[in-house]
Design goal:
With 428 residues, this protein is of the alpha+beta class. The chain contains seven helices and 23 strands.
Length: 428
């Protein structure tokens, strides 16, 4: 344990000890209530302790208590002409841990969320296969299934920040992401069921996947990825997929950009090469500084963001013990380390990971400090198991210029003011 950690821990213990000595109550400003000044919330019987509460059937499907009704997905109206082909954002500033509740998980649509009954669902496997097959939902349930936790991140997450600080809130700068436990059948299992002998040498083969909605959102995926970890999923976090997440079946493509996670999955075609669809030519390509664009940048590079404190989650308790927390992830593997800077990247401290990083899943990090009430330029920097280190925006611009959109994994800066309020700024 470092000297800083020792003093930090001692200070925190002293604070907590003082709170207990003063009656154990902490005032709204974060100060322990003085002894002899009774708190009626402790000393008096309250309404909620004087009568009966609701019965077990009051909310057949459990919903958050009304005091948390501000923890919701939010849209940015000016992003698109219509919400039918738009996106909303996960309230990452208000969550902890790593698993995203489905009801809070961001959604992206190209032609709106559709209603498709299990009984009407069909999945076709065709193309260069030994025997083209059509599966019903009931068919899929009979195959051996797996459970995996993965993040899904839109390629445009943080995309509006390329030219400079734009949106004031972690929800809006980094909220095009969710992390859920998916249950389903490996795509490999279904392809093998159809037979791949006809395809011949698989190293140069592709699959083309499309959805049942009006957009179809077709994407080409190299065969080696299709046979690796892609999952045909019908559950998330233990329950059926929500309509907005592709009920009854979606494709999970771990670590790769979210537009490839085709919802309402209806067809998988084995081909000799990529289709070069709209979503992989005019869209989801990366503009470079010289004006050219590159494609096939599927993997989401290591990235992180401090979620508290941040513009939507300011410091409200004044100087003293402060928990700095955030999220980190990498499409290339597991997060191994996260550093936090209080001074805009001049000095870094290693944060504590809540648990060992999981491959292609969110990691939660914490840094416990004693805040003296002075301004901070708060940053985080992620490291993954490949040795990759999250870059600054300046480093990205050297390659991509200022007119790109996708795959912006730069270090984020929050200017935390003496008041505890925070603002999105750019320093590097």
């Amino acid at each position: 344990m470092t000297a800083d950690k020792k003093s930090n821990g001692a200070s925190r213990r002293a604070f907590l000890k003082g709170a207990v000595a003063a009656g154990g109550a902490v005032a709204g400003a974060g100060m322990a209530r003085a002894a002899g000044d009774p708190d009626p919330l402790i000393t008096e019987v309250q309404d909620w302790a004087s009568g009966l509460g609701e019965g077990v059937d009051a909310t057949p499907y459990g919903l958050p208590i009304r005091f948390e009704d501000d923890v919701v997905r939010r849209n940015v109206e000016w992003l698109t002409a219509d919400t039918i082909s738009s996106i909303n954002f996960t309230p990452i500033h208000a969550l902890d841990g790593t698993i995203t509740p489905q009801g809070c998980a961001f959604e992206r649509h190209h032609s709106g969320a559709i209603e498709l009954k299990k009984e009407d669902y069909r999945l076709m496997i065709n193309g260069l296969v030994d025997k083209p097959l059509i599966f019903t939902y009931a068919d899929l349930e009979r195959f051996p299934r797996e459970n995996h936790v993965y993040f899904c991140e839109c390629a445009a997450n943080t995309g509006m920040e390329w030219a400079g600080a734009q949106l004031n809130g972690a929800q809006f700068t980094h909220g095009m992401i969710h992390n859920m436990e998916y249950s389903g059948v490996p795509l490999r299992t279904l392809l093998e069921e159809a037979g791949l002998d006809t395809a011949g040498d698989l190293k140069d083969k592709w699959v083309y996947v499309e959805g049942a909605d009006a957009s179809s959102n077709g994407r080409s995926i190299p065969m080696d990825k299709a046979l690796d970890d892609c999952l045909v999923a019908f559950k998330a976090n233990g329950e059926a997929l929500r309509k907005e997440h592709g009920y009854p079946v979606r494709l999970v493509v771990p670590g790769w950009e979210g537009n490839m996670w085709v919802k309402w999955l209806r067809r998988v075609e084995v081909l000799d090469g990529p289709v070069e669809s709209r979503e992989e030519t005019s869209k989801y390509t990366d503009t470079l500084a010289d004006g050219t664009s590159r494609k096939w940048t599927w993997e989401m590079d290591a990235k992180s963001v401090v979620t508290t404190p941040s513009p939507q989650s300011p410091i409200t308790h004044g100087p003293g013990p402060l928990v700095i927390t955030g999220l980190a992830w990498s499409g290339r593997g597991a997060i191994t380390r996260v550093d936090v800077s209080l001074d805009g990247g001049k000095n870094w401290q290693q944060a504590r990971l809540a648990k060992e990083g999981e491959s292609k899943a969110l990691s939660r990090f914490y840094l416990d400090i004693d805040w003296d009430g002075s301004e901070m330029l708060l940053q985080s920097r992620a490291h993954d198991e490949t040795g990759y280190v999250q870059p600054t925006k300046a480093q990205l611009r050297e390659v991509r210029g200022e007119n790109s959109i996708y795959h912006n994994n730069c270090i984020q800066t929050w200017w935390v003011k003496e008041s505890g309020e925070a603002e999105n700024v750019e320093v590097s």
